[in-house]
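Morning - pyridoxal-5'-phosphate inputs below, output right after.
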Amino acid sequence: MDRQAEKKMLYSFTKLADVKEKGATVIVKGEDCYVWDAKGKRYLDGFAGLQVVNIGHGRKEVAEAVYKQMCDLEYWHSFFGFTTKPTLELVEKLASLTPGDLNVPHFVNSGSEGNDSAFKIARAYFKNTDKCGKYKIIYRDKAYHGMNMGAISANGFYGNRVPYEPLVPGFLRIPHCHCYRCPVGKDYPSCNIDCAYALEKMIQEEGPDSVAAFIADPVQGTIGGYVPAVKEYFAIIREICDKYRVLFICDEVITGFGRTGKMFGIEHYPGVKPDMMVVAKGLSSGYVPLGAVIVSEKIADVLSEDLFMHGYTYGGHPVATACALVNIDILQREKLPENARTVGAYIGEQLNSFIERFSFIGEVRATGMLYGIELVKDKKTKEPFPVSFATEAMNIAREKGLLMRISTGGFANLLCPPLTMNKELADEMLAILDETYAEMEKKI
Ligand SMILES: Cc1ncc(COP(=O)(O)O)c(C=O)c1O
């Protein structure tokens, strides 16, 4: 292998200078919850790649389905009324899984494209229905919805935005919903869920006739560090959206396909039906890239009156949709959402015990198989460590053979293993983490 090549690539969220100095980690093989690098080192994949590989690595069944589809038809598109058989099968499959009348997908290649498409659809919907210029999109502080210009315009972290300004106009930010660091300085439940009512305040201030959509993920992702909302939150959001005719876009890019212990994260909020749902990652477990924005029939009916002037060359790629079908089949057959709930709860309990054992763990957030471990200098004041602390813990764990991550905000370590993780592997992951934090404790 040419080791020069690794110095000639722009890596995501990486200083190229660091790679030039230390070299890249070349991953060559994966099997269930493990991956191996080119030097033969084995890692327990505590982050499912990038929160992607819900069914675990190295499934021959997926490779075979993909191979068969490639032999039958390697590519076709979804422009001008064309489509393919696996794509249509996936349309039906998704409709049988998604809540309410979210029955009409538009296929894309990633979560960013899905969210950007959702913003465009929200604007086009209101151009068709109201002719009134409802176009603004409201998002939350600490939100991550992807990296294209639309998605970073709805990003709640300055580091993701500043290098690329000016961003897309018409995006507005409200507070996040992280109780541990309550943005309005209150306590639950006496706070009356003010963070949710911040949406109503923003709509009123801006004028309801100008606001098209609100975007949120059921468990806020990698910037905040896997923060679930309190149980009342999304019902209030739904009510406000209905009151002001604002569309609710639910970003299920991480939380979809069993990750939280249910097929979709929003199902933890009974009765709440989004107007659009954006999925990617676990939809195909990343074996082939695929994403979708799934819109309600009400929205599709309005859009169907005109040419839908949007689409990507590879949207609805038959190899990707064939891959998603077998992926969903495995998720259901092996009851992986249930495993995320049961083994997930066990991991959550064990991690919670870390709060007592380590002086610097302030909060553990566990939803299904999503874990945010908040690292603080002082448990009373909740003052966080600099980013370097979580990064050092991540690096030590990696040395010991566990892959995890830090939240982009830098206050937390994050775990998001494949949903196939059993109790034995969970214990292995917890043991490495325990050793890692014991080393960190000595450094304070
Ligand atoms: C919640 C959420 N939305 C959207 C995205 C963007 O997805 P992609 O990287 O596939 O564009 C991500 C990626 O991590 C995500 O976590």
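Note: The domain at 5-55+335-443 is CATH 3.90.1150.10 (Aspartate Aminotransferase, domain 1).

O.
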